[in-house]
Amino acid sequence: MLFKNDSGYDDERQGFQLLAAHRPDLIVPAATAEDVRRGVAHAASRNLPVAVQATGHGLPVAAAEGVLITTKRMDGVTVDPATATARVEAGARWQEVIVAAARHGLAPLSGSSPGVGVVSYTLGGGLGLLARQYGYAADQVRALDVVTADAEPRHVTPDDDLFWALVGGRGNFGVVTALEISLVPVRRLYGGALYFDQVETALRTWRDWTHALPDEMTSSIAVIPFPDVPQAPFPGRTVAHVRIAFNGDPEEGEELVRPLRAIGPRLADTVGELPYTGTAAIHNDPEHPSGYFATHSLLRALPEVEPLLGVRGVVEVRHLGGALTKPQGAPNSVGNRDAQYLAAVLSPGLPPGADLAALRPAHDAVADALSPWATGGQVLNFLYAGNAGPEQVRRAYEPADYDRLTRLKTEWDPANLFRMNHNIPPA
């Protein structure tokens, strides 16, 4: 255990998100499930709130008290090719699962960045590279090992109500120490990135192009104003970055992407056959910790692109639909499956403690302009850094599901021990 004045305390509490950081009374650097159990028991006996951190990419609330359990040392991954499953410990990142699964011609439903932690991503839904074909990462969960608020370790399967609550409820019902997930038979993709100067044309073309695509094609587009510094890929230019992940015949992929290549001269074009182990290059997400703030809207349609132009920050639109609209495995609490697009605004490169009030007007202006087509829902994994309040969390679920979650919270964590998260309060 580490206390505030102990050597190593500051290093242990830091995560990928640098805008804010946990500063608890006590840190439990867990290396085993038993360490987790002891940490929860200590907190429960003193009625202290519990926070959990693996990589800290999607920090919802910075703990200013209580107990922080860090799980980054619990990084074991075991693949069973006979059942096409993987057992993944609490601190493992997607990179470890991708590499282990690839040895058997399999792949997980990982996201854009292989450095993200598997457990929190999956329990919050998990919108990945193959989402339109296979659904959310949460849909592939088969079982969980968890320590609940009574400090009891449990093995939870889809037959339990607790399974439904955990898979979608993220950290509200216990500390998950391991997941068993299904893998999919994918070795290679036809994918990569296209970069254009013609931002408005690229947005309109991509939007229209998404209207008639097979589910095997998952894509997104980002408008990125690059800083005018030598290390930037395109210094001083605002660029449209189209991301492609097609799980099908490369020749069919080539035909599908042809209308995008016709947008105009490409600043770069990396779309082609690639192993699943190389898919980090599709989004090319930052690899080093930084401060960032984001907001998003779920949309039924995207008839206008004007609200996405001239925005101060990075704008991203992801194409949803396909298999995301219906659960693919055991029932879970992931909500808002009716949306067809997710539109987000990201303010990157922020210093610790940055004034978010100064950023909100630009974010709110985009949300207001898109509101005629918005579903009103939210995605749990996209709620962080000042945007994970009670109303936003409530909107991540269907109303009846949220009510059921609060009742299950009352059953499993009546004191709301697990509240330093996307909190669902007891009923």
Summarize the entry for a quick read:
This protein has helices at 9-13, 33-46, 94-102, 118-123, 131-134, 161-169, 199-209, 250-261, 280-283, 360-370, 390-394, 399-412, and strands spanning 2-3, 26-29, 50-53, 67-70, 77-80, 85-89, 141-147, 153-156, 175-182, 188-196, 217-225, 238-246, 266-269, 272-275, 293-299, 314-319, 341-347. The protein has 427 residues and is an alpha+beta fold. The strands form three sheets. Strands 10, 11, 12, 13, 14, 15, 16 and 17 form an eight-stranded antiparallel β-sheet that branches. The protein has a five-stranded antiparallel β-sheet with strand order 5-6-9-7-8.
% residues in beta strands: 15-25%
Structural class: alpha+beta
Major sheet characteristics: 8 strands, antiparallel
Order of helices and strands: EHEHEEEEHHHEEHEEHEEHEEHEEEHHH
Shape: globular
Number of alpha- plus pi-helical segments: 12
* Number of β-strand runs: 17
Secondary structure: helix percent: 10-25%
Q: What are the segments in which pLDDT stays under 50 over at least 5 consecutive residues?
A: none
Distance between the termini: 33 Å
Using the CA coordinates, give the radius of gyration: 21 Å
Give the averaged pLDDT, no decimals. 97
